[in-house]
Amino acid sequence: MTNHLIASGFHAVQTVLDWDPQRINNVWVDKNRSDTRIRSVLQQLSDNNISVEYADKHTLDRLSENSNHQGIVVKLSVAAMLTENELLSLLENINKPPLLLILDQIQDPHNFGACLRTADAAGVDAVIIAKDNSVGFTPTVLKTSSGALDYVPVCRVTNLCRTIKTIQKKGVWVVGASDDGDQSIHDADLQGAVAIVMGSEHSGMRRLVRKACDFIVNIPMLGRVESLNVSVATGVVLYEVLRQRQNKPERLSETNRQTRA
Fold it and tell me: What's the CATH code of the domain at 178?
């Protein structure tokens, strides 16, 4: 299932042209621009057999929702995000312990894209993001993810805590990652149906999201740096899940079972 994304400005358009120009469905260009920069982009569009529609500034303002479009707006094809009901249906049809990734208000498109790329590589079944204060699909996310947003289902929810409670009722254990976690990722049992929660770049998990988790784990840090970039930390935790699943039976330890109220 596909959806459409409106992108505007030279940087966004150039990103798509460099990475995957076939995603471009429509292009609108300011009919009054004829400078070198716009001519360069028009030539690239022509080289990729992409037609252009010329428009006035008012039309471009409307299409771009009054963003700084710099005289160019494009419509791209991207994967559609799941609804919460579609997420639950996906969980019911997975024939193995599901592995989910929950991103709590990740705002940097480079981090989000990198997390999606790692999620695809680690076999994550779905990524859940918050609707508010979270970056969505952008040309930068598309490029940084190396196209992974086409392969990893992404569900955008209004209330992350409510969604956590819902998937817990479906038998998924929700594990938050924080530098002050109670136990190391290597000591925690991550073998069963698990959702890993990663907090935002600046403040980590929000208080209520953290409280909703079944338990909190940490990544051992042996040097002087106190924390890792969120996309790097995501990769470390997800691959620890894979390591445990490959080496041990699929069950959640009794110690961790007792932590859920």
Answer: 3.40.1280.10
Instruction: Give the pLDDT confidence of 161-220 residue by residue, as tens digits.
Output: 999 999 999 999 999 999 999 999 999 999 999 999 999 988 899 999 999 999 999 999
CATH code where residue 51 lies: 3.30.1330.30
Res. 79 pLDDT band, cuts 50 70 90: confident
Picking from 242, 3, 199, 227, the residue whose alpha carbon sits closest to that of residue 107 is 199
The first and second tokens of residue 194, run together, are 């698990």
Q: How many independent structural domains does the chain possess?
A: 2
Helices (H) and strands (E) in the chain, counts: 10, 11
Give the residue from 188, 180, 190 showing the smallest Cα distance to 218: 180
How do 99-103 and 154-157 pair as beta strands?
unpaired
* Length of the chain as a residue count: 261
C-alpha to C-alpha distance for 165 and 162, rounded to whole angstroms: 5
β-partners of residue 130 are: 157
The three-class DSSP label of residue 217 is strand
- The range of the structural domain enclosing residue 47 comes to 2-79
